[in-house]
């Protein structure tokens, strides 16, 4: 796993229990799966003049804890105990502000192209490592962005096969990933 540090993060509220993982999908520009622009966005270095579709990203400050590329490469942008800015206006189980108590995992993808076997495997590995670190996270505490921001967000979308992910997650009993 490699690390790039995002400036788009801050401290979680004192005493916050991390008990949720939110899965996302991202492609920049839309339909393209090169991680370069995603990394630039999350590190605050995106040149919004590089692509006409980036105009509405000008000044946007977003991040996730992890990005899982199409090859399965995992990059960590924010330490797990810090708050990444991934969920925006969100609610889960009656609690607002999911960024406060969740870990965000972005998968490079969109609604048109299926996710890769490597992504299912690596997302499951990261989730299992997080579940070991934060025992209060159970499989039913792994949700999609669309679940915490319904009507506002679509991801990870219809291309993410939750049953396939569940099988991948159940095959991993222990995971020794070094997470920040």
Describe the structure.
The protein has four helices and ten strands, in the order βββαββββββαβαα. The strands form three sheets. It has a six-stranded mixed sheet. It has a single domain, classed as Lysozyme-like (3-Layer(aba) Sandwich). By secondary structure, it is α/β, with parallel strands linked by helices. Its EC number is 3.5.1.28.
What is the quaternary state of this protein?
Answer: single chain
> Which series of helices and strands comes N to C?
EEEHEEEEEEHEHH
The strands making up the biggest β-sheet line up spatially as 1-5-4-9-3-10
Strand content bin: 15-25%
Topology, number of strands = 10
Please, how many domains?
Answer: 1
- Number of DSSP helical runs: 4
- State the CATH architecture: 3-Layer(aba) Sandwich
CATH class: Alpha Beta
Radius of gyration over C-alpha positions, nearest whole angstrom: 15 Å
Please report the distance between the alpha carbons of the first and last residues. 11 Å
The helicity comes to: 10-25%
The shape is globular
Largest sheet features: 6 strands, mixed
CATH superfamily: Peptidoglycan recognition protein-like
Task: Pick out the low-confidence regions.
Answer: none
CATH fold category name: Lysozyme-like
Q: Helix- and strand-based class?
A: alpha/beta
Mean pLDDT: 92
Summary of the model, kept short:
The protein has 4 helices and 10 strands. With 180 residues, the chain is an alpha/beta fold.
Record the SSE blueprint.
Blueprint: E1 2-3, E2 9-11, E3 20-26, H1 36-42, E4 66-68, E5 74-76, E6 82-84, E7 91-92, E8 95-96, E9 102-108, H2 117-133, E10 142-144, H3 145-148, H4 162-171
Parallel strand pairs: 1-5, 3-9, 3-10, 4-9
Antiparallel strand pairs: 2-6, 4-5, 7-8
Helix pairs in contact: 2-4
């Amino acid at each position: 796993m490699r690390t790039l540090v995002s400036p788009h993060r801050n401290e979680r509220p004192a005493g916050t229990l991390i008990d949720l993982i939110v899965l996302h999908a991202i492609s920049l520009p839309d339909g393209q799966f090169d991680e370069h622009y995603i990394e630039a966005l999350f590190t605050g270095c995106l040149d919004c003049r590089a692509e006409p579709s980036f105009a509405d990203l000008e000044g946007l400050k977003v991040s996730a804890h992890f990005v899982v590329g199409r090859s399965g490469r995992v990059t960590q942008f924010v330490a797990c105990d810090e708050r990444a800015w991934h969920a925006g206006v969100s609610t889960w189980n009656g609690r607002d502000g999911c960024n406060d108590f969740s870990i965000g995992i972005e998968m490079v993808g969109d609604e048109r192209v299926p996710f890769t076997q490597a992504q299912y495997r690596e997302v499951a590995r990261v989730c299992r490592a997080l579940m070991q670190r934060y025992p209060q996270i159970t499989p039913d505490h792994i949700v999609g962005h669309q679940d915490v921001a319904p009507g506002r967000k679509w991801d990870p979308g219809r291309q993410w096969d939750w049953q396939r992910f569940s099988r991948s997650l159940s095959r991993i009993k222990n995971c020794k990933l070094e997470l920040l």
